[in-house]
Amino acid sequence: MIDQEEKQPSPDEIKMERDGQSVDWYLQSLVSVVNESDIEFGITLFVEGLTISGQLVSGRKYFETFAKDFSDAYPGSAGSKENIRQAFANHVAIYERDDSEGGSSPPQFIHLINCRCFSPGGVLPKNRGVLWRGKINAVSGSNLGSLSSE
Q1: Residue ranges of the domains in the chain?
Q2: Positive or negative CA dihedral for 61, 149, 124, 121?
Q3: Nearest 5°: phi and psi at 56?
Q4: What is the pTM of this model?
């Protein structure tokens, strides 16, 4: 006799069948390659009605750039600015690889520099691109290459 419980799909299997995969495994692969090699390339993402375009960079480069930009704008002495830079640069450690640990979990966040947001109302920012960090599972689509603000 066959056990009926063995034939019933799990709630996760039902959800996957109904909703499909919620995280783009291919985008996660691209982010992994960038995080491990520090290459950069233009990418355009579609996120909740916005088109976001910029240079895909490693988490390491994102946090190093964030730490520098934030500390440069911080009021105070050079020593205070350096302390602030170091505090934010500590997040780079998340992206330090240790090959002895085996496989790592897939990335959950994507990082862009020189980023602009395109919407029906226009392009922001108008002066220069910004740093942008977002959850990969919020991205509904992507394409290789970045858009021009002109």
Answers
A1: 11-144
A2: negative
A3: -70, 125
A4: 0.79
**How far apart are alpha carbons 57 and 53 in whole angstroms?**
12
Contact 67, 89 (CB under 8 A): yes
- pLDDT score at 51: 95
Q: Please tell me the distance from the alpha carbon of residue 68 to that of residue 82, in angstroms, as a whole number.
A: 9
CA atoms of 39 and 60, how far apart (whole Å): 11
CA distance 73 to 47: 29
Q: Which of 95, 79, 77, 97 is nearest to 87 (CA)?
A: 79
- Segment (H or E) for 59: helix 59-73
Maximum CA extent, the chain: 78
Q: How far apart are CA 118 and CA 48, in angstroms?
A: 12
Alpha carbons 61 and 44: distance in angstroms, whole number: 19
pLDDT of residue 124: 83
